[in-house]
Amino acid sequence: MQRYILVRLAQGLLTLLVLSMAVFLSSHLTGDPALYLLGPEGTQEDYEQLKKNIGLDKPLPVQYVVFLGNVVRGDFGTSPITGQSARDTLMERLPATLQLAGVAFLLTLIVGIPLGVLSAVKRDSIFDHLGKFFAVLGIAAPSFWVAIMLIMLFGAILGWLPTFGRGGIDHYILPAFVLSWGGMAGIVRLVRSSMLEVLDTEYVKFARIKGLPEQMVIYKHALKNAVIPALTFSGLTLAGLLNGSVAIEVVFAWPGIGRLLLQGITQRDFPIIQATVLAAGLFYVVVSLVVDILYAYVNPRIRYE
Amino acid sequence: MVTASNAEVGEVWWRLAYRRVRNLKLPWISVFIMLILLVCAGFAPLVAPHDPTEINILDGKLAPGENLNYPLGTDILGRDMLSRLIYGARTTVFISLVALGTGALAGTVIGLVAGFREGWFDAITMRAADAALGFPTILVAMVIVVIMGAGIESIILAVLLTVWARFARMIRGDVLSIKGMDYITAAKIAGVSMPMIIWRHVFPNTVNTLMIITSLQVGQVILLEASLSFLGLGLPVGEPAWGIMVSEGKAVILDVWWLSLLPGVAITVVVLAFNYFGDWMRDALDPKLRRL
């Protein structure tokens, strides 16, 4: 078990290291950082002075080590566009993304698991077919497009829900739903198939023969076993939320780090890019580490491998 | 393969062919949609009624059906929607084909070698594959765009970097089980070189898996390409790509609703078709993988 966690931990650190190299190189491969920081009005002397000030006259590996040291201390430098510290900007935007992802994740589980159970218990009924349709569409429809269509329907035509920015609970409904739909679809399918499998086992048959009420059989005996694969899958979903949130944040004008990153890319704001990419990478690595450990915990076969 | 039964002997050839095709239980709607997509992509200049980039301000904002000269309407600049959708199909097919093709090739080669040799090569590539499989693809794509700039090459590289891992993982799994077969041992004893064993004896047995993963991946690749185009990280604005078209319609959705609606429908329908086809292929070729 310890060995397993250590290996995963090393793997996660390595991923972050590769990512940090990529973002470090990104500012060097795409032009001269000093020239870029200086702007068009700088003189030759200013240029040399700036190079010395920020350590650009040193060899690349040395610069990387300095960069890494700063990053570990949480210093990403100052954005030349806004003049603000990239860390402060990141911290300002991070809660919005985490809240949206959290709500979407809860929605995935709260809607996905019951829908999967319903599909399995009432197999081939109208619920099953509707659930299947919902799942298949959730996987195939691009989320950014679904978002725009829902904004048109609920925001503009019906006027029921706010369509942009952050605010009360009603602001979360549309973006959280769109963000969670893909993962929800996966959970519905997974819970349905594992539930069908479990409902066919001897112990469920025995519980029924014993005369337990159907509710009890399903929720106490079947669901507990059927939900394990869904929970491990939900860890992957959490990482996937990060993926989807860039487009969703753009469409709903959500002030999170996805939009910050896209903005950073279009403005070539390297401190912002580096801060957001590394923060997102850290989030992903931590989440998948936690999921792996939980998985090993519930599944002893992995633990002793 | 189906062998000719007694009932089939003496039948007219076309009836026999018909029966055999029917026995495949192909998902016909999916196949039909895929064919339309491929025809649109391959013969875009012949199929499209107009030039997709030709601007006709006077004919701008025509709704679908309003003017039969433009069956699916026009955008704000008066460009024909149908032609733009058809050329968009070309963009989608081109990017998916190149990205998926190179991804499949790289992943297969890595998977074959990793599975056959094991040891350090296996350990390194499989750890890398695990990382690539889970890592947020949009993030990878955005880092690539920062380094290489927006463009088709960036999108292809981003898709490639995420797609290879699934091929490598699955093919490696296949190779591990094939490797223990007697005919591989026999080839080794006969002194056949490793590349030759892999190419002649191992690879042909992984083709099924290869086809299944490819067909299951197409939908994902199309969606990824569309998202990147939508975010403006791919082709320049104005080019006919479905993701860009959805994005162009975003601001004027109330006024010109079909601008975003139509390309989105196109993406959804095409991805649905490929997903159904992938499911069919998996069930037909390898029922063991049903829960992939």
Architecture overview:
The complex is a heterodimer of chains A (305) and B (292). Chain A has 305 residues and is mostly helical. Chain A is built from 13 helices and no strands. In chain A, helix 10 packs antiparallel against helix 12 (270-298). Chain A is elongated and about 90 Å long. The model of chain A has no long low-confidence stretch (mean pLDDT 82). Chain B is mainly α and 292 residues long. Chain B is built from twelve helices and no strands. Chain B has helices at residues 13-23, 28-42, 44-47, 81-117, 119-134, 137-148, 152-179, 182-189, 194-202, 207-230, 242-250, 258-285. In chain B, helix 7 packs antiparallel against helix 10. Chain B starts with 12 loop residues before the first helix and ends in a 7-residue tail after the last helix. The mean pLDDT of chain B is 83. The chains are: A mainly alpha (305), B mainly alpha (292). At the A-B interface, helix 1, helix 6, helix 7, helix 10 and helix 11 of A face helix 5, helix 6, helix 10, helix 11 and helix 12 of B.
Chain pair with largest interface: A-B, 46 and 41 residues
Shape of chain B: flat
User: What's the mean pLDDT score of chain B?
Assistant: 83
Strand % of chain B is under 5%
Task: From the alpha carbons, calculate the radius of gyration of chain B and give it in angstroms.
Answer: 23 Å
Unreliable parts of chain B:
none
Helix content of chain B: 55-70%
Taken in chain order, the helices and strands of chain B follow as HHHHHHHHHHHH
Query: Based on helices, strands and strand pairing, what is the structural class of chain B?
Result: mainly alpha
- Beta-strand level of the residues of chain A, as a percent range? under 5%
- Shape call of chain A: elongated
Total number of helical segments of chain A?
Answer: 13
Biggest sheet overview of chain B: none
Radius of gyration of chain A: 24 Å
Counting helices, strands and paired strands, the structural category of chain A is mainly alpha
Written as H for each helix and E for each strand, in order along the chain, the element string of chain A is HHHHHHHHHHHHH
Oligomer: heterodimer
